[in-house]
Amino acid sequence: MTALRRSFIALTILAGALGAQGTPRVGTVIIAHGGDSTWNAGVRSIAAEVRTGGPVEVSFLMGQGASSARFQDAVAKLEQAGATEIVIVPLLVSSHSGHYQQIRYLAGEDVTLGETMEHHLHMAGIERAKTRLPIRLTPALDNAPEMARVLADRALALVRSTGDAPGLRALLIVGHGPNSAEDYAAWMANLRPVADSVRAWTGFRDVRVELVRDDAPAPVRAEAVLRTREFIDIQHALTGRDVIVVPVLISRGSVSRDKLPRDIAGTKSVYDGATLLPHSAMARWVEARVGK
What we know:
Elements: H1 3-22, E1 26-32, H2 37-49, E2 56-60, H3 71-80, E3 85-91, H4 98-106, H5 115-124, E4 135-137, H6 145-162, E5 170-175, H7 181-202, E6 206-211, H8 218-239, E7 243-248, H9 254-263, E8 269-271, H10 280-291
Parallel strand pairs: 1-2, 1-3, 3-4, 5-6, 5-7, 7-8
Helix pairs in contact: 6-7, 6-10
């Protein structure tokens, strides 16, 4: 091998190494509300499916995993794994919530948290990450088509279990929802087109959406539950058949398992509590958010 060729090979290797070092490597933090071990397992299972070309970590704001999966620790792990930038993906139904505000704060945005939201972070020892890496925060699910796809799949599975065709039944999508009227309006503005997509994909005779506003003051929540039950009555009268009820909730927990069944108890409805997780479309949604 000539000296010229050896020099050319060496330069090629060096250029490749420099190129690899200069290529951005995105680290992803999937951050969710958090709950019991079953709830958290749903988030971790989806995180394991995500393929972004870079490392992925999970963080929780509340619940059993909050203190052991803190935001600042997740960022530190991504740095150690060679990330050159951080993307935060909030695994929340809506960007219009106190929890999204918490995440905005953690991302370094100029946000003043309310006393309750600040207290939740403090109790779990969660704080902003000490990093020089650039951080980008994405929106929550909001009106994501991937969420509509999961809801459609859940609804179709449930109606098939009854032996009926979707065109003979009505579907009610029920969510947790926010406290304030303004945030409620913002949630619904996103969820109505989601419901429209679900109807187009499934062929249900009637598709509606409502929120039980689970953390709102008792009279507000009671009215929201009453409206939900009235929707079921209206849809049952329309079709003459039990209404398919699907929750728009991130993962299985006390709301899907206990609260919603109590809320709709005694109505003409069919409900199995299947949530957005686990479903491969949710992993694809995370990838899409990171790629933007």
